[in-house]
Specification:
1 helix, about 150 residues, globular, Thiol Ester Dehydrase, Chain A, mainly beta, six-stranded antiparallel beta sheet, single chain
């Protein structure tokens, strides 16, 4: 069942971190060791352009898999937050690592909402580097108004 409210095709201002994820490792601009990700949204899609440095590598020159998971998760969460508000919580994240991502090389993370039923939402995301799809993911999320004391 897909009952997503469609938004216009024009790029929208991202809601930013003013009141959302103000201390997040992935997207808070003031987190000392964070990734400082920035997002662009258009309708039910969000894009993040990033370049991960060698501080976050696993094998020499390769972005750590946990950082890759963070990129995907953060972009899907931001996509849902921009479309629906609230605080999306990750319930499940399925990742397919197709090719390695190189450090110090531009990449684009794109997330799109695929469906919503009540507070439950589903999305998919891809990471492209050098015009190749390197990683894909699907996620299940729950929208909540407040994170304090919430059980998934």
């Amino acid at each position: 069942m897909n009952n997503i409210a469609q938004h216009g095709d024009t790029a929208e201002r991202d809601r930013g971190t003013d009141d959302f994820h103000t201390e997040c490792f992935a997207c808070a601009p003031t987190h000392e060791q964070g990734l400082h990700l920035q997002f662009e949204s258009s309708g039910i899609q969000t894009t993040c352009r990033a370049e991960i440095n060698s501080v976050h590598q696993s094998y020499n020159g390769i972005v750590h898999g946990g950082i890759i998971a963070t990129l995907l998760d953060a972009t899907m969460i931001r996509c849902m937050h921009n479309a629906f508000g609230g605080n999306p919580l990750t319930c499940r994240l399925d990742i397919r690592y197709r090719e390695v991502l190189q450090v110090d090389t531009a990449m684009t993370v794109t997330a799109c909402i695929t469906s919503r039923r009540g507070a439950n939402c589903w999305a998919h995301a891809t990471i492209m580097q050098k015009d190749r799809v390197c990683v894909t993911a699907r996620g299940t999320f729950k929208l909540v108004e407040s994170i304090q004391g919430q059980a998934i």
